[in-house]
């Protein structure tokens, strides 16, 4: 029998691929960041090496595929393809919520990718609202069975309140996260799903000991929009534009974490230039979800091309700034214009 969770997983994939579920008016505001083109870079493109460490694992380029799926029969091939492409490029990957495999162990294999991706950084995933249902032992067991290097806890209050069968009780979530940070056998980090993380929340997460914050800001896929389509009445569309733009969220999170934790920039990041802008704003890693799913659905070749182009664009952008590595990028000056400037000045 197909569980409600498994059915929702399939709905989400179909809606993301077939419908327009992106933010319509709000953007990431990364377009307000202007970079300082070094017309004389004084380096060769081949000198650029963006190798980086994230949560104890080495990446060839600071890029990972954000959590997408697991838990339905169509998820298996998606995860296998993504993992294989990430292994080829030396980048990371997040699995979708592991709730489905905890509820129905018979579909656990849809999350297994270590056969095709033995070396990549692999993050497991669970919803903050589900922490009260599953003990740390259960989650440790699930993480171990997939060979995860970290656990991403998703904070998706905006999505859950719009979801027809959503969990709307977010009380005491922070203290639960604190408990899991201590009890989970791999590093724990927090992520939103596309509506952003503010200064105060990033600071609270740091204070309870999460090892990184993945902002998943507004401007890309709107999860309130995805779940509003699942209501026959269209309830929830009002919240389509809800959230903090990715560029704002990266800067606020950087100010809150003051260099003591790592930051992932994500939510609406669509190319390597935007990826490098995020690194310059303060991120250590860049995450992308929707375009990866869409490319994978076309063909494995399209998926490879998308990821290859993205990493090449990051290297080229770095070259055009005269930066050989991440350290040099972090020292780059930049100009902030328009709406982003207004937001950050308040
Ligand atoms: C089909 C699909 C399923 C997703 N499922 C999950 C999930 O299970 N857990 C999670 O934390 N995020 C999930 N996400 C959210 C992404 O990780 C990401 O936060 C969000 O889509 C914003 O990034 P984007 O604008 O690059 O798509 C999913 C995204 C997609 C496209």
From TrEMBL:
The cofactor required is:
FMN; NADPH; Mg(2+)
State the organism named in the record.
Candidatus Iainarchaeum sp
Top EC category: isomerase
Q: Name one GO cellular component term.
A: cytoplasm
The identity of this protein, by name, is: Isopentenyl-diphosphate delta-isomerase
**Subunit and partners:** Homooctamer. Dimer of tetramers.
Q: What keywords does the record list, in alphabetical order?
A: Cytoplasm, Flavoprotein, FMN, Isomerase, Isoprene biosynthesis, Magnesium, Metal-binding, NADP
Mind listing the GO biological process terms from this record? isoprenoid biosynthetic process
Q: Which residues bind Mg(2+)?
A: 160
Pinpoint the FMN-dependent dehydrogenase domain residues: 5-99, 174-332
Per UniProt, FMN binds at 66-69, 97, 125, 191, 221, 268-270, 289-290
> Which SUPFAM superfamilies did the record assign?
FMN-linked oxidoreductases
Which positions are tagged coiled coil? none
Q: Its Gene Ontology molecular function terms?
A: FMN binding; isopentenyl-diphosphate delta-isomerase activity; magnesium ion binding; NADPH binding; oxidoreductase activity
Can you tell me which family this protein belongs to?
Belongs to the IPP isomerase type 2 family.
Report the protein's function: Involved in the biosynthesis of isoprenoids. Catalyzes the 1,3-allylic rearrangement of the homoallylic substrate isopentenyl (IPP) to its allylic isomer, dimethylallyl diphosphate (DMAPP).
Q: In which domain of life is the source organism classified?
A: Archaea
The subcellular localization recorded is: Cytoplasm
Record-listed substrate binding positions: 8-9, 97-99, 159
| EC number from the UniProt entry | 5.3.3.2
Q: Which reaction does it catalyse?
A: isopentenyl diphosphate = dimethylallyl diphosphate
């Amino acid at each position: 029998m197909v569980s409600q969770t498994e059915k929702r997983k399939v709905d989400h994939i179909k809606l993301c691929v077939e419908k327009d579920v992106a933010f319509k008016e709000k953007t990431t505001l990364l377009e307000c960041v202007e970079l300082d083109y070094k017309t004389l870079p004084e380096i060769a493109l081949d000198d650029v090496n963006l190798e980086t460490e994230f949560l104890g694992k080495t990446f060839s380029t600071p890029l990972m595929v954000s959590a997408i799926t697991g838990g339905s029969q169509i998820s298996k091939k998606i995860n296998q393809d993504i993992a294989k492409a990430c292994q080829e490029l030396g980048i990371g990957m997040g699995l979708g919520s592991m709730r489905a495999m905890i509820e129905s162990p018979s579909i656990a294999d849809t999350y297994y990718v270590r056969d095709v991706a033995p070396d990549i950084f692999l993050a497991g995933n669970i919803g903050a609202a589900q922490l009260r249902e599953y003990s740390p032992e259960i989650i440790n067991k699930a993480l171990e069975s997939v060979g995860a290097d970290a656990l991403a806890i998703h904070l998706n209050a905006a999505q859950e309140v719009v979801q027809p069968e959503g969990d709307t009780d977010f009380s005491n979530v922070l203290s639960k996260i604190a408990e899991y940070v201590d009890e989970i056998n791999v590093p724990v980090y927090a992520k939103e799903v596309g509506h952003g993380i503010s200064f105060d929340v990033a600071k609270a997460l740091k204070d309870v000991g999460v090892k990184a914050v993945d902002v998943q800001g507004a401007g890309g896929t709107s999860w309130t929009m995805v779940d509003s389509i699942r209501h026959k009445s269209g309830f929830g569309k009002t919240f389509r534009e809800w959230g903090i733009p990715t560029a704002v969220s990266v800067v606020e999170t950087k100010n809150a974490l003051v260099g003591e934790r790592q930051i992932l920039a994500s939510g609406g990041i669509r190319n390597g230039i935007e990826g490098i802008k995020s690194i310059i704003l303060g991120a250590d890693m860049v995450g992308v979800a929707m375009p990866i799913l869409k490319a994978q659905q076309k063909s494995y070749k399209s998926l490879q091309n998308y990821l290859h182009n993205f990493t090449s664009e990051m290297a080229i952008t770095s070259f055009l700034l005269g930066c050989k590595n991440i350290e040099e990028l972090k020292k780059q000056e930049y100009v902030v214009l328009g709406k982003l400037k207004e937001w950050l000045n308040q």
